[in-house]
Description:
2 copies of one chain form a homodimer. By secondary structure, chain A is mainly α.
Amino acid sequence: MNGCSDNTDPMARTSGSHSEITGPRLREAAQRLFARHGYAAVTMRQIAAEVGVQAGALYNYIPDKQGLLADLMRAHLEDLLAAWADEPRGEGPLGALEAFTRFHIRFHLERPDAVFIAYMELRNLAPENFAGIEALRKRYETELEDILRAGQAAGVFDLPDTKLATLAVIAMLTGVTTWYRDAGRLSRERVAGLYWDMVRKAVGA
Amino acid sequence: MNGCSDNTDPMARTSGSHSEITGPRLREAAQRLFARHGYAAVTMRQIAAEVGVQAGALYNYIPDKQGLLADLMRAHLEDLLAAWADEPRGEGPLGALEAFTRFHIRFHLERPDAVFIAYMELRNLAPENFAGIEALRKRYETELEDILRAGQAAGVFDLPDTKLATLAVIAMLTGVTTWYRDAGRLSRERVAGLYWDMVRKAVGA
DNA sequence: GTGTTATCTGAACAGCCGTTCATTTCAATC
DNA sequence: GATTGAAATGAACGGCTGTTCAGATAACAC
């Protein structure tokens, strides 16, 4: 993760003082600032100030600003896919859809900054980075589409257009990150329940 | 550099009474570029090049870059509210909801750039501009909320949480702009119909 | 102690940023 | 033809941009 070449000597990593802490802190600061102000509006010096180093030091951990953005987005989407792969499914398409709904809301509410970046900064990715990131996003989308298609085939759902339903449901669920606040009147569990109620009805189950 | 081959010619290539055309062209170019690359990533010189003038000339029409963004967003939201005010409603809450759904999709698909900006660049608004823009956005949101509340009161809808349903429906509908392409397999009418089908079911009607 | 090595500083680089303004251009009016 | 004035130019402004790099610093091994 630290961008160094092959780590041939496991003991060599203990030489510096802050190397193990600066890398993660850089990523955290960048994620927070990118989400808050947008990739293009954030300067390397702002990130460095947040980390507590000079701007030049950041380049011990990242190739460049663009690479930093791509890394953040890729890491987020890989986390997402891995977490969903580990998530227990319910029974049948209906159970799977409920699992997906509750998982999606929980996962996204836990990382609002990463979600924001992944959805808003696609246009700031260089073409060579965009392709890979977009493929990951598509893979996640397909997870839901497969559930809906299976439910449609099993006669559990009523969907005139499975593909459109996939996009509609994901947009609805992801929208939660734009308004949900921890201090609000609804708990995350309650929100997930309310969304599941709407999703279930929307797919005709 | 004006791009002309003859750089010894001191005379400007274009000039004269273009004032009535340059203003709108500036706004169109800015809208397209802001939507494509993001407000912070677009330079005044890029906009000027698109319009066909030098950067300095833009300031005959706008106070500054920030004012340009605020103007674009305010104009779009006022258009949105005015268009919805003129839109014929169907009968009762169900008819109103269908009218809103179809209107929202049609209106948003007709101006993808303006929509993109209005909902992605809120964070780039200076505080004094943000308040007014956010109020307009809220007013539109309330239009849907009122419909849902009326339908809930009339027993036509089944909504455990009207406020959340409002946000969920708007997110779902607005999401159409992220994937719809005119060259795709579905017409706008068909898409609106499919979304209406899901919305109707989601609200329990 | 010496030497090694990862880490960070601080200055520099070339270039772009939004914005201003004196000047130039030219259609419209007298 | 002369005058006017809106509209555009082109250069300039101070400041900020991402990135590089020689040199300082400090923790480790010996």
